[in-house]
Amino acid sequence: MSLQAHSLTCIRGDLQLFADLSFDIQPGDALWVSGTNGSGKTSLLRMLCGLAAPAAGEVRWQGRNIRSLRDEFCSKLIYIGHANGVKDDLMAWENLVISTTLAGDPVSEEEAHQALQHLGLGRAADLPTRALSQGQRKRVALARLSLGMKMPLWILDEPFTALDKSAVAALCGTISKHLSGGGMVIYTTHQEIDLSAKRALRLDMNEGRLC
Ligand SMILES: Nc1ncnc2c1ncn2[C@@H]1O[C@H](COP(=O)(O)OP(=O)(O)OP(=O)(O)O)[C@@H](O)[C@H]1O
After folding, report:
1. Which of 50, 57, 51 has the alpha carbon at shortest distance from 22?
2. 1-76+152-164+176-211, CATH topology level
3. Which protein residue's CA is at the shortest distance from atom 2 of ligand 1?
4. Buried b vs exposed e over 52-67: b needs ≥16 C-beta within 10 Å?
5. Where does the signal sequence lie (predicted)?
6. Could you give the ipTM of this predicted complex?
7. Spatial CA neighbour of 29 closest among 145, 170, 178, 144
8. What pLDDT, in 10s, does the model give residues 145-199?
């Protein structure tokens, strides 16, 4: 399994955010996409999961352009963006049942409750997510990860934002477990985070290269 960014160029409006960006991610790798505000981190992540098309270059999964793989590629990844993908009107546990069902690997109500409990959301599990705090909403989105260990590729945009210390530690543990099982993680953060990975890589978007 591998994800390859091959000579990617991204243009937004009349601005070229990056050009000729290339890297390879293998099982057990963690790639931290770092850079200043506006340097193109979110734009790159959206490109890597197929939500945005590159102006030039291609993203390859197992050596094939993700544009030709479509659903086959989508079924291998979990993407959690800034907006978290959490539906306000649904209870926390319902969000998990629905997101796993849409991903083709549905969990039961009990499994959803257990995942939320693990992230300290036991009592909040039965509330509509609109009633939760920012950090709690983030936890609901991230509970999806402990249910998605089978998905080899996780792409996470600022997963640590709004989390308190204990939730950051729990999330680091979940990500490290995924990596030790051969998963791959690409993430952005403005925090210093310590993950145990086979290869802990950093892509500096201001430099436009791996450091
Ligand atoms: N659809 C768009 N049209 C025009 N400009 C865009 C579009 N999407 C993003 N941009 C611009 O591209 C730049 C990079 O945005 P992006 O969200 O990728 O940055 P980022 O590195 O993730 O920033 P942050 O650290 O603040 O989250 C910004 O200047 C943004 O305004």
Report:
1. 57
2. Rossmann fold (3.40.50)
3. 12
4. eebeebbbbbeeeebe
5. none
6. 0.95
7. 178
8. 989 899 999 999 999 999 999 889 989 999 999 999 999 999 999 998 988 888 9
CB–CB of 23/203 below 8 Å?
A: yes
Give the number of the atom of ligand 1 that is nearest the alpha carbon of residue 36. 25
| Ligand 1 first shell, C-beta below 6 A | 12-13, 17, 35, 37-43
Distance separating alpha carbons of residues 38 and 20, to the nearest angstrom:
18
DSSP character at residue 130: G
Residue pair 45/157 in contact by the 8 Å Cβ criterion: yes
Average pLDDT over every residue of 122-132 = 92
CA-closest residue to ligand 1 atom 7: 12
pTM: 0.94
Dist. CA 122–CA 74, nearest whole Å: 30
